[in-house]
Amino acid sequence: MRLAFVTPRFGPGVLGGSEAVMAEAASGFGGRGHDVEVITTCALDHYGWANELPEGVSEEKGLVVRRFRVERRPSRAALGAQLSIQAGRVPDLDHQVSWLGFQFAAPGLFEHVLRFERGYDAIVFSPYLFWSTTVCAPLVAEKAVVMPCLHDETYARLEVTRPVLASPALVWFLSGPEHELAHRLGPVSRRHSVTGTGVPVPRGYDPEGFRRRHGLRRPFVLFAGRREGGKGLPTLLEALGPVLGSAGTSLDLDLVLIGKGDPAAPLVVPQGLEGRVVDLGFVGDAERNDAFAAALAFLQPSQVESFSRTAMEAWLAGRPVVALAGNEVLAWHCRRSGGGLLFSDSASLGEALHKLCAAPALRDDLGLAGRRYVLDNYTWPNVLDRMEASLLAMAGGDRPTRAGEPAPGHEPALEPAMAPGYAPALEPAMAAAPAPVKEQNAKRRARRYLVAGSYPPLPGQAPAATLAAVRRAWAEGAEVDVASPRPSAAKYVLASGKPLGRQLAALRRREGCDGVVLCVEPGWPLMPVGSSRRRSLGGRRRRAVGGLTNALLGFSYAEVVVTGAPGDLVDQLDALAPLWPAVHKLTASSEALLGDLTARTARARGTGSGPAGFPAGSGPAGSGPHGSAHPGSGHPGSGRVPAVRVVEPQSGTGPLRSLHGGAGPLEPGELLLATRTRRALGRLFRKVLGRHAPAVRVHMEKLLRSARPASGARRRR
Questions:
Q1: Between the CA of residue 437 and those of 5, 434, 519, what are the distances in Å?
Q2: DSSP 717
């Protein structure tokens, strides 16, 4: 089988259980004769997400590795959502969508996965929490295998993470409690199984050498892992204070720490534990194994675990595990293995350590029971057998990819498809549409498109239409650059404070684009204007539309895709009427919108310049089988009206489909904050001025209108 493993980080020095599992699973499948690739970012550290490695394709540890650059697009909305989640609150969906890119985004990775998904028999994603999984996996659901590494936390209760469990073709769980948690949270893919994960078995240990190298004279207990709140190190230090720091205690133990922490948050040792904590920082694999073997016991205080690889490594070294009783996964492993003790507070932790110190035979019995448990259940040959069997069952009767077929990244054309979760899905009709119109005075065919519009992971009809346009261009063999008005998986973000036409022209020159597809939705590219502001903003909107028209005329092919309800687009379509002479093709997303656009073009043909402001023209626009016009009538500067065709949305209700049923535009990120701030200021304005608010507003508008000609005269002089 041809497999891809999508992980946020891969390479030397990467610390993380899911990243280690993905690397070892990819290597294991490669060793069994499968064609395996790793798709990842250029980052190694999950605190800063800096691009430390070069972008491109390389061979590492016998695997083909494709790396893509990380983009950081911070916003106040994303930060606000993150703070809400950390406080245990679930933010609204708009903030959740902004939060998806809080840590990083990788547009190149997104494009590769979507464009070349058919080159793989399965695409494995892990963990559920990162952008590379939450954004990419739902859109390639038919090929997606998700190993979520799920924790009982607020992140798992977000609407934007539900498709990660509900829509994939297959889900691999690492433990029984993780499997049960997933079902408590919501729908889970029909195909799922508890595969566990493998743990490499070291060839040998050198405990005495470890003590000697680090000058450890007293017996010690070990903590290994990331220095994060969920991993429980602060809780452990607080509980150990009374146990090791009390005067006259019979426990002559040190605490040794290994692992990485946030450089901005240095380790704070509580009072009473001075001189009893030895921090070794990050160590290599061999040194880590020796640390487990040299310890009296391994302390696992983590509150969030889906498997606990460190507990398995301790058991392989023959050491007992003392784990937090409140963690269901750790308690489950300890009960099944008979290799550990549980603690819930300082007193129970002290009792467990006293018991282990006083009974060496008990320590050995617990350690041996744990080692047998790991060897029987979690060695890589056993786990790969389970994973391989589930993949073959998922494939069913499908023909596996054979040698000699085009490799991913080199396929000539792909059929567009849309996975459930982003709606409505518009691709089938768009894919069946003919190629761009070959006008007499236009270039024969655009080979690189610029597609501008809302883009996933934003849910709703408009992003689905943009993605459909992108996939249709790929199917025609063209290259695509995507620009979105909001932070998303698009390569570029269009600034709201700069003229859109100027930005599109700059991108055309920068990327060498021949064609453009502009995806219009309610609220974009022109914001709605209330009746009280229509006059004051009318001139600005006309200038914006004029600049946009000139920008479209610079492309050899221009198409406009209109999505939304006709009633929400009246103001938008009226203002954009001067744009149509620069457009070759006009696409509607529904029959209702098609009827509105067709009526506008009919009025334009009959009256020379209809109410909508369309130019006069008599180009061919015969009625198609669904009332859509045949493409081919639009031509920049020809005076004709562009042809109109319809794209019928698919029926169905995906995980995010019902959450944005309204006609208003989605407003995540900075746009959402700006809107709410404007509304809050308006409420404050009305509250302070009371009944005088309308009169003050009228007076301010008069002042603005009177000041505008004077400022214009100064500019002319």
A1: 40, 8, 18
A2: -
3-state secondary structure 15-79: CCHHHHHHHHHHHHHHHCCCEEEEEEECECCCCCCCECCCCEEEEECCEEEEEECCECCCCHHHH
Interior CA angle at 55 toward 49 and 58, to 5°? 120
| Residue 559: C-alpha distances to residues 135, 342, 426, 645 (Å) | 27, 64, 16, 11
Confidence tier at 259 by pLDDT (50, 70, 90) = confident
CA distances from 612 to 394, 582, 706 (A): 53, 16, 30
Length of the chain counted residue by residue:
717
| Kind and range of the H or E run holding 255 | strand 254-258
Residue 276 pLDDT exceeds 50: yes
Average pLDDT of the segment spanning 231-244: 86
CB 230 within 8 A of CB 304: yes
**By C-alpha distance, which of 303, 151, 304, 317 is closest to 222?**
317
Provide DSSP, 187-212.
---SSEEE--------S---HHHHHH
CA angle (212 as vertex; 211, 216 as ends), nearest 5? 45
Cα separation of 172 and 165, whole Å?
10
d(CA 220, CA 345): 20
Angle, nearest 10°, between helix axes 17-31 and 380-395? 80
Mapped onto helix, strand or coil, the DSSP state of residue 598 is helix
Residue 188 amino acid letter: V
- Rounded-to-integer distance, Cα 225 and Cα 223, Å: 7
Is the confidence at residue 74, as pLDDT, over 90? no
**H/E/C letters for each residue in 679-707?**
HHHHHHHHHHHHHHHHHHHHHHHHHHHHH
Look over the chain and give the mean of its residue pLDDT values, rounded to a whole number: 79
Question: Worst-scoring range by mean pLDDT, 131-145, 499-513, 593-607?
Answer: 593-607
Enumerate residues 6+ apart whose C-beta is below 8 A from 714: none
> Which pLDDT score is estimated for 629?
32
Give residue for tokens 């909107």: 541
| Separation CA 704–CA 539 (nearest Å) | 14
Q: What pTM was computed for the model?
A: 0.77
Contact 207, 188 (CB under 8 A): no
